Structure formats: structure tokens, C-alpha cells
DNA sequence: TTCATGTGTAAGTGGAGACTGACAGGTGTA
DNA sequence: TACACCTGTCAGTCTCCACTTACACATGAA
């Protein structure tokens, strides 16, 4: 994980509304409209937050057809576990240099 | 750690400039003007970032007198180690309820 | 055909926070 | 006195992002 990914991750979680989203999704998947109702949030706003969380890899969404033929966009938490201390931050910054050197073909890591 | 503290921590680290500050302070303490020069950042701006980092407990500053009588404000990293996954986030949110119940006299955790 | 449900996006507003420049004050040295 | 350092803060600008309103488009049921 380089510093860019780390930053995306941290700024995604570091927001009160998105913490609430994570809390709400913890028990299991929910579709967007239902989630918006529970949080008392407008749907477009929720989309923005979900998009941000998805880009950071915290959440995954998939379109599903319900029994009665309605398209429902379900979101669920993606497993993540990040440790945050001086060493892990420095490691992320150092990773940038490696990315630079390797260019294409990422190191996985 | 309740969700408010967690949020302060995450939004403090989740910023490119502040990551750079942490990187720069990792080898050892520095005083503000020197740090500003290294980062190529104005001093007032640096103060803002340092204040934010200090409030989140990532950094500590102290005023010191150099040998030649100049006052220097040194900052150094505070030790921190936070693990971030669904469980730790939920734990922070649950902590809010405990804070509410206990009111004053914090639980230290 | 109308209503209630859902997805998805475009366009605009408002406010917080990132950032700058300029100031006032202190010290030691030439 | 003047200069080169330092700390600390105020007042302003500007940019980003959180948020709203409104739209287009589907489906199934009354």
C-alpha cells in the first residue's frame, strides 16, 4: 500500500457519516434506498459517500434483481485490517519510491 | 477511544501534507521554522497542521531555549499505534454510548 | 395510467478548511 | 541601530467537498 492508497483509505474512514455507514453495514448488506432511509440521508449524498468508500476498498456494491423484478443496488463491507503507526506510514511513503522505480507491473505487496 | 477521538485521529493523518510532516519528524524533533523550510510551507499553515496533529495526539510540541537565547518551538512524534478494521470501528462507536452513560470521569480504556 | 418503489446523474449552493501575506514581538550579533 | 534569526496570530482568499433539489428512466401493483 503506497501513500496514495493509505490517504484514500484514511480520508474515507475519517468522516462521521461514513463511519455511520460502516456501522450500518456491519450486520449485513443493504441496498441504497434502504440505507438512505435508515441514516436519514439523501440518496445522491449517500451515493457520493459509497463511491468514496468503494474506491478506498472498504465497501463493495453489486446490482441485484429482487423477486419482484426491481433492480436493487446492494452494498456490503469489504474485509479490511490496517495498522496505523509511524512505521506503517513510513512504509507507505517508501512504497511510493518503489512504485516510481517499478512503474507499471505493481509489486502486489 | 470513542468515535470522536477516532475521527480526529483519522482526519488528522488523512492529509498529504500532514503525512509529510510525520515523515519529516520521524527521525527526530525539529523546530517549526526549520520544518517549514524543509517542507517548503508557510509557517502559519504549518502551525495549523501541527495544531491539528497535536490535538489528535500524534505530535507534541514544547518551547525550548537554545544556547544562544533564542526560543525554539520543537515538535516531535508521539507514539501511537491504532488498528483499523470493522471491529475496532464498531468498538469506538459503542464507546460513545458508554461515554454518554458514564458522563464525566472517563474510562481511560 | 397513475402511484409507489427503485437506480442513476446533473447542476447548483454553502461552508469548512487549506493556504497566503502581513503584522507585532522577542533575542543575539555586526 | 540595523540585521538575521525565531515565535505567534490576524485577516483575508480560494478551493474542495458535503449537501440539496431536480431530473430521466425503469419496474410492479392498484
UniProtKB/TrEMBL annotation, chains A, B:
Species assigned in the record: Streptomyces rectiviolaceus
InterPro entries assigned: ArsR-like_HTH (IPR011991), HTH_ArsR_DNA-bd_dom (IPR001845), HTH_MetalResp_TranReg (IPR051081), WH-like_DNA-bd_sf (IPR036388), WH_DNA-bd_sf (IPR036390)
Region forming the signal peptide: none
PROSITE patterns for this protein: HTH_ARSR_2
Pfam families: HTH_5 (PF01022)
Protein name: HTH arsR-type domain-containing protein
UniProt keyword list: DNA-binding, Transcription, Transcription regulation
SMART domains: HTH_ARSR (SM00418)
Ranges of residues in domain HTH arsR-type: 1-101
PANTHER family linked to this entry: TRANSCRIPTIONAL REGULATOR, ARSR FAMILY (PTHR33154), TRANSCRIPTIONAL REPRESSOR SDPR (PTHR33154:SF33)
Domain of life: Bacteria
Amino acid at each position: 500500500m503506497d501513500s496514495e492508497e493509505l490517504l484514500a483509505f484514511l480520508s474515507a474512514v475519517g468522516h462521521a457519516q461514513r463511519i455511520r455507514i460502516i456501522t450500518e453495514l456491519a450486520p449485513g448488506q443493504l441496498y441504497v434506498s434502504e440505507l438512505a432511509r435508515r441514516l436519514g440521508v439523501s440518496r445522491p449524498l449517500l451515493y457520493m459517500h459509497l463511491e468514496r468508500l468503494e474506491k478506498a476498498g472498504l465497501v463493495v456494491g453489486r446490482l441485484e434483481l429482487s423477486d419482484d423484478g426491481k433492480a436493487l443496488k446492494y452494498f456490503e463491507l469489504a474485509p479490511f485490517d490496517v495498522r496505523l503507526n509511524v512505521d506503517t506510514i513510513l512504509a507507505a511513503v517508501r512504497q511510493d519510491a518503489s512504485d516510481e522505480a517499478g512503474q507499471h507491473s505493481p509489486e502486489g505487496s
